[in-house]
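Help! Submission page says 'invalid entity' but I think these are all valid:
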Amino acid sequence: MHTATIRCLPTGSVQVVTGTSPHGQGHETAWAQIVADQLGCDMDAVEVLHGDTSISSIGMDTYGSRSLPVGGVALYNAAAKVIDKARQIVAHQLEVSPDDLDFADGTFTVKGSPDKEATLASVAFGAWAAHDLPDGMEPGLEATAVYDPPNFSWPAGAHAAVVEVDTETGDTRLLRYVAVDDVGNPVNPMIVDGQVHGGITQGVAAALYEEGGYDEDANLTTTTMTTYLVPSPAEVPSYETDRTVTEADNPLGVKGVGETGTIAAAPAVINAVVDALAHLGVTDVQMPATPERVWNAIQEARP
Amino acid sequence: MIPASFDYEVAESTEHAIQLLGEREDAKLLAGGHSLLPAMKLRIARPACLVDIVGLTELDYVREDGDRIAIGAVTRHKDVRDAQLLQEHCPIVSFTAGQVGDPQVRHRGTIGGSISHSDPASDLPTVLFALDAELVVRGAGGERTIPALDFCTGVFETALQEGEMLVEIRVPKLGASTGWSYVKMARRAQDWATVGVAAVVERSNGGISRAAIALTNMGATAVRARAAEQAIVDGAGIDEAAALVTEGRNPPSDHAASADFRKHLATVLARRALEEAASAE
């Protein structure tokens, strides 16, 4: 589950409280986009609050590619509740049926009477001023939604890696990497690309570089960034990424993206290494495929 | 990741630097800092005082000196790489300076700093060993010249006396019949060489008659592969000579490679270096 609260302030700005915990994934940006799309307001008018239990007490963190398909959908549902309450207020004020109101780009209009309209910002001001509300309606324009998805979302993709192995030294280099992923509707394509690129590099690192080493007395030996090898841009090629879009079964049609690169890259790269050495009889190389491991695998495969 | 506390002095001139080295307790020269500062952050090194010499323009030069090229000690790696005099007369030095670390390191690190640090995994000491370069050091008592081969005495240890600093590196102008190569293997661009091999050879009649071969990260300092060099003089082929470069070597085992694998790599890289040097135009 995830919770989301949307608070349309009398100033016209919008506060969003999310139970997701972004630490570099760009939730502030993507969540503001979702809310701005739904409420028809400017993205800059949306403030996303998170990561503080005194303001956001309920949520299940950020892991398992869940933030968007769970927390993002909670946000969508909260926006629907806000619009629904605003619709009741506008219907009361314009003396029309709620069903006769259209809502688009932040403005309610009356079907057949396009000159009669009310903006969401003006409704928010009136709602907090408790001015001219339907009988018995609580003042304010704010809603909270809690969402527990009926099923998982299923991001899918295919990744291909081209590596070059120096069979005399075991030195292995990643030459080309192509990734095509289906993450449903991308809310922010640049963030999606960033997540895919970062995930691929993490997977490449697992396949070729990163490893915790221990000495005979079980002391960790890889205690600095000079011995725990995180690849830099010099070690990886420019990735070629593309997308297909198959909408997931949720109101936004979105899936997670955080893990596609990591999950696919390690096996793609290792399979490429093994494939490069297949003609020598190599069937497996332990990760990370260090030059020494690759060279030893070649020696062991020799008849 | 935070160094022990230290004082910091900026040298106004070479003489001032030497004076500070003599006056200040446990002082060390800072000439770029891309090896020293990480070592200080790991507290492998904890000098009481750093004397910054990287601003000494009087030691930042590459110039002709008769049949040699003289390089000032605080010349940055990228300036060594780009020096036309070296590209023309001793290209193994400019080429190898372009192989040191990554762009950030090459724009701050200096050739004198690299050699004075005497890390056996550094590239430039190996090349200077293969060239029989000369190093000019200066102290309060004056200047003296030390063969590069005698300069590096151990891991992070040099022949510099208390209060002395390296001021100039002199490399020979290579003749038309001289071929060269430096090949190294490193896990990542920013890493020190797992193993490196420098070869400077005299080509004759389609083969090589003489070779100077030096190795990176195959012992406590850069080291010459004398047995392999002798084999070349005695008429051995490249494969045969390359197989001898590990003779007497006791390389380290670490996260990058075991000692045995380093020996294997040295043999492969020596063969490649000799082949490239022999075929160089």
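Support: the input was valid. A stray whitespace character was the problem, and the output above is from the cleaned input. Strands of chain A lie at 2-8, 14-18, 46-49, 101-104, 107-110, 113-119, 142-147, 156-165, 172-182, 240-244.
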